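Protein in question quoted for reference:
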Amino acid sequence: MIGTFPLPYPFPSEIDFLIGRDRSPITMYLLHEDHGYHRLSLYCPYWMINKTGLTLEYKDDKSGKVFKHQPGDDFIMLSCEDKKHCKINLSSYTTRGSKTDWSSSISLQAVGTSGRYHSRLPNTSIVNHFGVAVQLSKFTLSKLVIVTPYYLLSNHTQTDVTVHEERGSGEGTLVPKGQVVPFWPLVDSSRLYVTVRKDCRSVLFNYKKTDSVVLKLTNKPTVLIVDVQETESSNIISFSSYYETCTPVQFINLLTDATVVFKQDIK
C-alpha cells in the first residue's frame, strides 16, 4: 500500500504521497471520467525499471529532487515538477560502491526513443555507460523508462570465457557459457582480449565499433568468433565457437598462376 488520502469533491488532479523505504515524496495524478458514475484512475507518469544490477539515482532536472533505485527493486515510480517537459539526470554507484557524477539531461517525453548516457567517477577515468529507452505502458498515461548496461557480454560457446581490458589490472569479467552479463569498463581503452582457462589468451580486438572478428587463441588449436553489434542504446559483444564456413569473410583465388597470402589486421 502506498498510502491513504482524503478524496474531496470536486476531485483533485494531483495527490502527494510518501513512498518507498526512505518515504520519498512523489506526486501522483488522478484522472476523473464521468460516465453517469465517477471513474477514477490513479497513476504515476513514469515507471523506472533498473536492469543494470547497480544502485541508480535519478534527479529531477528542475526541482533537484532525487529518487534512489536499488538493484533489487523491480521498479520505482517517478514524477517531475515540469509535467510537460520532464528531464532527469542519472547517477550510479560503481561495482566498488563509489558514486559517480550526474549524467547530462535525459528527456522522458518522447515514446520510442532510446539513447546512450554516461556518468563519470570523479577524478578517475572510470565511466559507467547506460542505455535508456522510453516505452508506452498499456495504460497510456504512464511511460516505462528502462535503464540497461550499455555494454553486454554474451557467451554462445560451450565453455566459460573471461574478458579483460587491454590495460586492465583486475581479474577480468567472467562470462559463463550460455549467459549474458553486463560489462563496466574500468580503463580508457577500446580493446579487449579473452582468456579460456589461464593458459589460452586471444589477440586484442576493438569492442567499440560494429565488427566480426576471428580470435586466435594461444596454446589451443582453435579460434573464437566475436561479433560486436552497436546501436543507439546498446553495444552487445557476442562470443561463439568457430565452425567450418562460419568465417565472416571468404577469399576465393581465381588466379591460375599465383598464390595469394593474407593475414588479419588486429590493430
In short: The chain has a mean pLDDT of 87. The CA atoms of residues 50 and 147 lie 5 Å apart. The chain has two domains: 46-149, 151-241.
